Amino acid sequence: MHAWPASDVPALPGKGRDLRIHDTATGGPVTVAPGPVARIYVCGITPYDATHLGHAATYNAFDLVQRVWLDTKRQIEYVQNVTDIDDPLLERAARDGEDWTGLAERETALFREDMTALRMLPPRHYIGAVEAIPGIVPLVERLCDSGVAYVLDGDVYFSVEADPHFGEVSGLDAETMRLLSAERGGDPERPGKKNPLDPMLWMAAREGEPSWDGGSLGRGRPGWHIECVAIALDHLGMGFDVQGGGSDLAFPHHEMGASHAQALTGEYPFAKAYVHAGMVGLDGAKMSKSKGNLVFVSTLRREGVDPAAIRLALLAHHYRADWEWTDQVLETAVARLERWRAAVSRPDGPSAASLVEEVREALSDDLDAPAALAAVDRWAALQEATGGTDEGAPGVVSRTVDALLGIAL
Ligand code: 5CA
Ligand code: ZN
Prior knowledge:
This protein is an alpha/beta fold.
């Protein structure tokens, strides 16, 4: 699949700091990407509805990761998937009497437009589940051959016991895993499974549903976790730097993905850090396509909201926090954007020498975007109150905000 156009990232004076970020598996901060090339996999959308602010907040977090890395002059291998075949997509298409491929294509196109408008850096490899099927099938066959997968009425399951490290990503107890598995696409109640948590690797063709040639597996379609594993192994290999997504992906998705990959390769770990963004809610509940309590990026754009203000609204919250979208959040961001634009549009201003370092320090410390915004606020307030004589300062501020926060002033 093609991704979306990249916006330029200006180079800043000096060199940025290495990123320390919270790793869900160890429960503490880790310094990621020690080498010259940083490798990151971020789970993409299931395109059955438009991009809401929760999605945008999660992609914003991983965009910041890359901006910090670019500032340290690292190259980035960034991979993202599109889950363009899965139950929710088929259910929505059936509900609306629409062809599922048309729905997926339309929503993926809208996602690209939203990401472009928000100035999110595009992945180098943007891969759909359907196009990954020829790579998924041999992996499932290998898991079957090595005895860590089994067949139940034609469906193929992965034995979670095959991976001695199973459970280390999320660190959850068995009961919580069981509850979350039922909530998030698993089938712990299905009789005949070796372990209720075992996830499906390959689903045998169902009447009236699309299916693909699965070689020795028979016709069917891939399970969710193996999709991301196949794409990540193909483009990044084992031991890549960051596996990213929202906190609802820690279990089962990232837990199962790590176990699949570790069982397949005998190597450990799948990813060096598992990074999870908090959940954005609306009216007291997590924003989710299934609940329908959504604010879409595209709706706000159509209403004339500046995408830079949407992005500033996301940046005002720490990526690991759960938070609520409200009209007030957006109004605050619109006002801040206006203040910043007025401040950088003067011919001179107070020195911005320390600002670059303050923003760098904030972001390199577990992506503390609110602290970065506060630093820019301080410069803008000084500009408003006293002004200054540094003719280079407004330019430095706008390039810093552009390069590290993705906001064009
Ligand atoms: N296609 C899979 C990943 S392989 C998937 O989870 N798709 S999704 O469309 O449901 O979500 C896309 C990304 O947005 C995921 O990282 C998910 O964790 C994140 N996300 C979903 N809802 C929210 C929310 N309310 N707040 C923050 N992030 C969210
Ligand atoms: Zn994924």
